[in-house]
Write a structure and sequence with these properties.
Its main location: membrane. It is a single chain. With 215 residues, this protein is of the alpha+beta class. The protein folds into two domains: 124 residues, Immunoglobulin-like (Sandwich), CATH 2.60.40; 69 residues. Helices cover 39% and strands 26% of the residues. Strands 2-11-10-5-6-7 form a six-stranded mixed beta sheet, with no helix packed on it. A three-stranded antiparallel beta sheet has the order 3-9-8, with no helix packed on it.
Length: 215
């Protein structure tokens, strides 16, 4: 009467119930937000994510770049089952996949940094049915050298570690020296005591022989 078979109605109702039971969730993106690197070096742009849905072949990762001085957004990298590097542009042959979807990692490596790489890098992950969520951002600053404070603390840490090792070596050497000296003094005293005891016994023997001869 209604134009639908009972089986079709049951399947329709079951589908509606499963859809209602499936939670509506968004992909959560986690990045370092700020990254500083030296000109000419390489940098890992770390991007991890969490998703309610299990990771499968439908997962996609898209990296884009917004220059610091403005201008249009530029393509950096794309991943879907396999990594897809840019065939042209500023990032050609300078970016590689360094992620692992099974570990919820969508990171990439950027090689041979240049000053014009300064800007904001965006990481977008879609894992159907989780396709919504905030896009992760990393603000990269390419500098000539690391800041003085970083060099200072690094040198201070290395210097402190070396100084500590030198102090430990000196203490160990001194302890061993004093132990050897103490043992040498003890051995010398033992030799002196034995010599005096032998001398005393010799004197007693001489006295007893003299007394025997007198008698």
């Amino acid at each position: 009467m209604y134009g639908k078979s009972p089986t079709r109605v049951v399947l329709l109702l079951l589908g509606i119930q499963l859809t209602a039971l499936w939670p509506i969730a968004a992909v959560e993106i986690y990045t370092s937000r700020v990254l500083e690197a030296v000109n000419g070096t390489d940098a890992r742009l770390k991007c991890t994510f969490s998703s309610f849905a299990p990771v499968g072949d439908a997962l996609t990762v898209t990296w884009n770049f917004r220059p610091l001085d403005g201008g249009p957004e530029q393509f950096v990298f794309y991943y879907h089952i396999d990594p897809f590097q840019p065939m042209s542009g500023r990032f050609k042959d300078r970016v590689s996949w360094d992620g692992n979807p099974e570990r919820y990692d969508a990171s990439i490596f950027l090689w041979k940094l240049q000053f014009d790489d300064n800007g904001t890098y965006t990481c977008q992950v879609k894992n159907p049915p989780d396709v919504d969520g905030v896009i992760g951002e990393i603000r990269l600053s390419v500098v000539q050298t690391v800041r003085f404070s970083e060099i200072y603390f690094l040198a201070l840490a290395i210097g402190s570690a070396c100084a500590l090792m030198i102090i430990i070596v000196i203490v160990v050497v001194l302890v061993q020296h004093f132990r050897k000296k103490r043992w040498a003094e003890r051995a010398h005293k033992v030799v002196e005591i034995k010599s005096k005891e032998e001398e005393r016994l010799n004197q007693e023997k001489k006295v007893s022989v003299y007394l025997e001869d007198t008698d």
